[in-house]
Amino acid sequence: MSQAGRASAKRSKPSYFMAILGVSIVLFFVGIFGWVLLNASHYIDKLKEEVQVQVYLRNNVAQKDIDSLKNFLIAQPYAKSVEYVDKEIAKQRWLSKGEADFEPLLDENPLPASIDFYTNSSYVQKDSLNGIKNELMQRSMVVQSVNYPAALVEKMGPTMRWILLGMVVLAIVFSILSIILIDNTIKLAMYSNRFLIKTMQMVGATRGFISKPMNIRAVINGTVAAFISIALIYGIIIVFEAYLPYLKDLRDNSMLILLFLFLFLLGIGISFVSTHRSVVKYLKMSLDDLY
Predict the structure, then answer these.
(1) For a Cys-Cys bond, which of 8, 89, 132, 271 suits 222, CB 3.0-4.6 Å?
(2) Nearest 5 degrees, angle CA 170-CA 172-CA 178?
(3) Whether the Cβ atoms of residue 73 and residue 82 lie closer than 8 Å to each other
């Protein structure tokens, strides 16, 4: 009987290797998809934060009023960065764009001074920017007009929402399929141990005694698989960032850590649950049903 048990244990070793390999592959693809989703979400936020609002000032506004408005904008949650552009800087920027020099024709610089700011991504939507514009226009003694690319914002909002919604749906579907694949991989690995499980039950071993070492092994396998997949994913991230430096700006380390933690828990959790279910299943089956 002991020889049969040792033989069964030896036969089960390759299945553990295949279980670790199978779970590692699935977790790897889940992690890569998660990384792409995180980068896409961050890239969309960066695109939104490229929207600039220009607050044009009236002529002959006192410097203290300009400073007061600038400080007001700095304190607002919608303003990501604030810059005062005087008439001379406005002229230089006008000429740098290849526009005609108006100095030979006009005695005075017609370009107004402005306070320009980029908005935080959560405020880049039609209603929010309209509200900001209306709030600033109430300072009519200082503010002449407020401009921003309204047409772009109006198109950007629905497009970005559909893109994010589509990616979230894909992430959910992909996660469900991954859980099913990991579960089936573990079940196939446990299939080779069915006679060992039944033999231990027939010689009087309790369910807890039988399942405990296999559950511990499942946790170890899940941990090893998670570490392998995380190491591979991080290696690929480093390689891609070396060739595409702009990806470094998209990386959110806190979200990346959460993704790795999710992979770690997914690998251990599914391995443990699937192993325990398989052990209970084979314990309930008759010996003839195992063949």
Answers:
(1) 271
(2) 100
(3) yes
